[in-house]
Amino acid sequence: MNVGGSTIFGTADHESDVNKENETKLLLDSYVEKEKRAEAPRMGSMFRSEEMALCQLFIQPEAAYSAVASMGEAGVVQFRDLNSDVNAFQRKFVSEVRRCDELERKLRYIEAEVNKDKVPIPENTISPNAPNPREIIDLENQLERTESEILELSHNAVNLKSNYLELLELKHVLEKTHSFFEESFCLQQQDSTTPTSSGNDSITKALISEDSQQVIRGRLGFVAGVVSRERVPGFERMLWRISRGNVFLRRAELAEPLEDPATGNEIYKTVFVAFFQGEQLKSRVKKVCSGYHASFYNCPSSYVDRQDLLKGVKTRIEDLNLVLNQTHDHRQRVLTTVAKELHGWSVMVRKMKAIYHSLNLFNMDVTKKCLIGECWVPLSDVPFIRQTLADGGKAVGSSIPSFLNVIETNENPPTFNRTNKFTQGFQNLIDSYGVASYREVNPALYTIITFPFLFGIMFGDAGHGLILTLFGGFMVLREQQFTQKKINNEVWNIFFSGRYIILLMGIFSIYTGIIYNDVFSKSINIFGSSWSVILKNNTIKDISEATLDPAVNYNQLPYPMGLDPVWQRSSIETSPTCAPSVLITFINMMLYKKNTENVLPCQPYMFQYQDQLQTIFLIISLCCIPIMLAGKPIYIMISKRRMQKRRYSVNNGDLNQEIEMKENESVSIPSENMTLQYHPEEQQQDDEHEEMSEILIHQVIETIEYVLSTVSHTASYLRLWALSLAHAQLSEVLWNMVLKAGLMSESYSGSILLYFTFGTWSVFTIAILVMMEGLSAFLHTLRLHWVEFMSKFYIGTGYPFQPFSFKLILESEEALEE
């Protein structure tokens, strides 16, 4: 029996192993098929947001940088912060972030020097990849050498310019003071020959005594220099106060501005010479000059010495000017070379900094040998992330592979709708109202057609629509050029971001304008009217209006496209009884009220059997109310029971059978020892924790609100008729009051009048009918979508998917810089 028992148990173990192997094969085959389906393009991706998966990354530290860099280039991963309780200065890669900050500081300095010398920075549309660790060291060394070289060049240039400025100031002092000394000498000669000075020459009396000429020349001193022009008034007042009027100041403004050596700005200065007596007054004058930042120079009193010094100064200026030109040329060559690489360096440093910021969101395992991160990834991009992790390990030669696991969660995932340059504008209109909840129906798909169509109904004029189409087509055809120019005008950027919306609005306006047969408020008779007037000439002259009989005046062939042009000549178009009857008819339809008044030639109904059709629609609407009231609570109740049964079966099942094949669920890879499960129905976690009574009360409130809003929202669509009529009337008034005056003139001056009236009509057409009326129709269309249309089914309580994308990071930083 023991042998038999052992044989029996051995057979059971063997069968269990075979079952596990078969189950593993099935799991792997199913996973491969699911990944193939995920990789295949899905046509309905815009109808709902992408399926998201919460993934856990296990990356080796040496492969983390290259793997995260590849994810940043793809822009399909949104990392979660696993170190929210850790200070930003205590994270693992804070030293690397500081290195990046230092590199950014050097780049800002280099860019400032390039812009100061007005060296053009070429625009480079090619974005370099993030540097690898070896390239980071080379980049640091290169930026260090470049900064040191530019610093040395700047320091040398400042010193040379300072010397050049001093020589220029000395040259101007020597040139301007010659006349000052000549006048001083004349004053001394006059004072020595005249026994008493005149009463008006008080300044001369204060400066020069009545002693002999030799004594005056021995005691008279002077200080010559330059001072800033804006400091001259205060400088003069201070010299007068400290000397009590015993300083004789002469000054002359320099006609040409000088250059500040440090900033390169223009500075205006004034040459001055202060004459005084005594050493004590000399020290006071020099202190005042120092206080007002005046530069004073040793100027010889002898004319010959001044001329010799001036010649030497001019020679030194010429030599220094030659050195400055050579230094400037060398600096220009260096900065021009640096400017070509500046964009690439900036992009690489920003990408490197973004990578280390993302790595700071990771957590270290207990052994400190593995980085663990969590991220939201579109389910279709999970294979790409796996391949990225494998390539990152191979790039650094890591022996331990990195891997990814999709973990089970009840958390609400972010909403991610893939868009292109055509659908982005329409998606922005929806996101402005509210980001769709996860896997909620996306109204942007319908908006692509309904938005321009409703706009065209209110804006229906083929001429005005043609203007919109030309403007939108111009932006679409030149979008490559406008994108590269990076225009900072906010209004233009709004128009440019919605260029495809404007293009479609113009096309639909042309279509509705053809249907209305309305081109700049005028009808076009292309196919010939189907109505004819059969009256005698005498009769036509005697009457102002005539009623056309369809049996006689109509050829029984409708106009091929749009309204018959005879409609614009008809008085029914503006009839006081038939025009409001359209509105009354719609109101009676909503209130289910029969129109007993029959005002000829208007009919109570728009078509035959309208009354019966209204009754059928009303019955269907009433039958939908119980479904709306009880449908959702019943569905939630059934879903709860299914969830409880499934959890019960999982809790009481075999622990070795954790991986189960279920429909609409993901699978696991046994080699990674991590369960990959995804339950779409668990997204109703908020409803699971609510009591059924609360759900019923909430549903009753929503049903009442929906039924009442249906009536008001349906009436709100009458704005389509009202705005189209207002636009047509305003266009016709502008034609009759402005352009018609020039067209009706029969004299030679009519051509000149037509020139001005056409210009005025064109300006008013674009400014009022296209821009203002277009904005009005746009806002009404937006309201019809946000309030009347989307409120019926759209919740919009989700949060957007914000991936780690180098493209988005660079664009946001460039926008902040601008």
Query: Helical segment tally?
Result: 25
What class, by secondary structure content? alpha+beta
Alpha carbon gap, first and last residue: 88 Å
User: How big a fraction of the residues is strand?
Assistant: 5-15%
pLDDT averaged over residues: 80
Low-confidence blocks of residues: 1-44, 195-218, 654-687
Residues in helix, %: 55-70%
Radius of gyration using CA atoms only: 44 Å
Global geometry: flat
List keywords for this structure.
alpha+beta, four-stranded antiparallel sheet, five-stranded antiparallel sheet, 818 residues, 60% helix, disordered N terminus, 25 helices
Please summarize what this structure is.
The protein has helices at residues 2-39, 61-74, 94-116, 133-193, 202-207, 213-219, 232-243, 279-291, 303-359, 382-396, 424-433, 444-458, 462-477, 479-485, 490-497, 499-516, 537-542, 550-553, 579-591, 610-651, 685-688, 692-716, 719-743, 749-789, 806-817; strands at residues 52-59, 78-80, 220-228, 248-253, 258-259, 266-267, 269-277, 295-297, 363-364, 371-378, 403-406. It is of the alpha+beta class and 818 residues long.
Structure notes:
The chain contains 25 helices and 11 strands. The chain has helices at 2-39, 61-74, 94-116, 133-193, 202-207, 213-219, 232-243, 279-291, 303-359, 382-396, 424-433, 444-458, 462-477, 479-485, 490-497, 499-516, 537-542, 550-553, 579-591, 610-651, 685-688, 692-716, 719-743, 749-789, 806-817, and strands at 52-59, 78-80, 220-228, 248-253, 258-259, 266-267, 269-277, 295-297, 363-364, 371-378, 403-406. Strands 1, 2, 9, 10 and 11 form a 5-stranded antiparallel beta sheet that branches. The protein has a 4-stranded antiparallel beta sheet with strand order 4-7-3-8, with helices on both faces. The termini are far apart. 22% of the residues are buried.
